[in-house]
Amino acid sequence: MQAIVIREPGGPDVLEMRDIPVPQPARGEVRVRVYATAVNRADLLQRCGLYPAPPGFPADIPGMEIAGEVVALGADVTDVAIGDRVFGIVGGGGYAEQIVVHARTLAPMPAKMAFFEAAAVPEAFITAWDALIDQCHLAAGDVLLVHAAGSGVGTAAAQIARAIGARVIGTVRTAAKADRLREMGIEESIVVAQGRFADEVLARTHGRGADVVAELVGGSYVAEDMACLAAGGRIVAIGTMGGSRCEMNLSLLMTKRAEIRGTMLRARPLEEKIMAARVLQRRIVPLLERQILRPVIDRVLSLAQASEAHARLESGETFGKVVLEI
Amino acid sequence: MQAIVIREPGGPDVLEMRDIPVPQPARGEVRVRVYATAVNRADLLQRCGLYPAPPGFPADIPGMEIAGEVVALGADVTDVAIGDRVFGIVGGGGYAEQIVVHARTLAPMPAKMAFFEAAAVPEAFITAWDALIDQCHLAAGDVLLVHAAGSGVGTAAAQIARAIGARVIGTVRTAAKADRLREMGIEESIVVAQGRFADEVLARTHGRGADVVAELVGGSYVAEDMACLAAGGRIVAIGTMGGSRCEMNLSLLMTKRAEIRGTMLRARPLEEKIMAARVLQRRIVPLLERQILRPVIDRVLSLAQASEAHARLESGETFGKVVLEI
């Protein structure tokens, strides 16, 4: 089968198509014919040699989410059948025609959804749901501040917050991205200049601030988050495009009785990845089927264009996900 | 009645005894004859002009916890009767012969406990229980790292953790305090030199680290906490004796899926202070009555010795609480 392999740590051109053996499913596992995958920032880090795949997944094939069809079953698989259209997160190896995964880490695809659309869902929507709802207890009436609101996770977070009755304020870096957010019904956004947004968030919330912050930028944004966080507010660090070091004022954290937490799907053990698949199946798919949530796709390329796809995500100009069809 | 008043912001000598009017209880409130109060670091800050009392409490009388007897009832008080021996946290005004508080913010004192012992309980034990159990979900099998383990909150945190089946590692600054901890049955402590403890915590936990950290020092301790925090670990900032600024590594926070939160009792609204009194009554008092928890008292002084009591706490040499009898 064909797969994209990282030849050596480096730029987008180290991704090359190779012919590799088809993997075989063991007990409890299934093999999926992957029809689409999508590009994540973690793939870029892995390509640069900065983010090794967890044990049990191919070390040199990127790709953390898939949509496809079940083509072979290992022993004792009863939840999934050959021919099922499935999607989900994987620890790596998504940039390939076929992949072997534990059957229970998959979820049935929404009816009528194309593979290229389904591949844009798992990482973004599971990450956002898990971080906002399950970890930060975002609820109706809360104000969510979401940074990099035009990113895959950002667009997912904004939609999820809206779906459950929270108010969304997104930050973006360009007016064009604010327009794109408005087109998808996210009316309130701030085009951030010189890294400042706290005063604007406070002004728009009559001094109360944000209850939850989806922190996809990091670095100096965190001090601004703290300045415009409501009492009892929660910041969840999901990405660090703007740097991973920040200053923290513990007295302010105490006065606001605030919390900051970090989250990551990839490092989780099997049981939590299975739980993530249940979140996808029971919480996200129903909202996708009712079109309350929609994957946002920047562009669809072919697997052979993986280098171009990586360069595109690195450009910072994407709005939504970059998908690879296989 | 007699009360200690902060004459002006300054050192311990700005505390002076004054004769002030006896306050009257309004609807839902009671007046308590205070027989003992205790000194908290927040009192020292308030005395220096750095920590104003919340609205509804005297601006210039320190004291955030009391033990005493109910002597007068406002209208519609049914939960508390005249003569009841009660204790609890208050927003301020504890350094006085009498105080008016909402009836439901009080809890019945443990049977057989003296007032001077009871006054050493509320702030330390409610703070520790709320932070560790209710906020950080400390549970049997977890490892708790508690800094300033000889402080009022530190000794309470260590005892609570032990009571629920968690393993406790305390840090202290002197061997003498480690000895005192051992005498109260807290066997594992680290005498911190040059602010380092992470390697020692990792060594003692076979590389796994601490599940929960009670952070009473702050400053540079937080980076060490992060270095020896287990995956999924929680740091709760309760005090900042060592400084309130710290560096945070968001990537590490994400990789460990860790959380850091700040906590404070005083800033809470009435409903949460009432909930705190229920924690005291339903969780802490039963363990005090069975002597599984015991208040740790550094020394007992009289209200007239408030200046001396403040100087004692500021010395950093206390082990447990400094109590004032009235």
Keywords, separated by commas or semicolons:
seven-stranded mixed beta sheet, globular, alpha/beta, 326 residues, six-stranded parallel beta sheet, Quinone Oxidoreductase, Chain A, domain 1, 16 strands, homodimer, 10 helices
Structure, explained:
The structure is a homodimer of 326-residue chains. Chain A is an alpha/beta fold and 326 residues long. Chain A has 2 domains: 2-121 and 266-325, Medium-chain alcohol dehydrogenases, catalytic domain (Quinone Oxidoreductase, Chain A, domain 1, Alpha-Beta Complex); 124-262, Medium-chain alcohol dehydrogenases, catalytic domain (Quinone Oxidoreductase, Chain A, domain 1). Chain A is 29% helix and 27% strand. Chain A is built from 10 helices and 16 strands. In chain A, strands 3, 4, 5, 6, 7, 15 and 16 form a 7-stranded mixed β-sheet that branches. A 6-stranded parallel β-sheet of chain A has the order 10-9-8-11-12-14, with helices on both faces. In chain A, strands 1-2 form a two-stranded antiparallel ribbon. In chain A, strand 8 (143-146), helix 4 and strand 9 form a beta-alpha-beta unit. In chain A, helix 3 packs across helix 4. The longest helix of chain A has 20 residues, at 270-289. The radius of gyration of chain A is 19 Å and the shape is globular. Strand 13 (245-249) of chain A pairs antiparallel with strand 13 (245-249) of chain B, so a sheet runs across the interface.
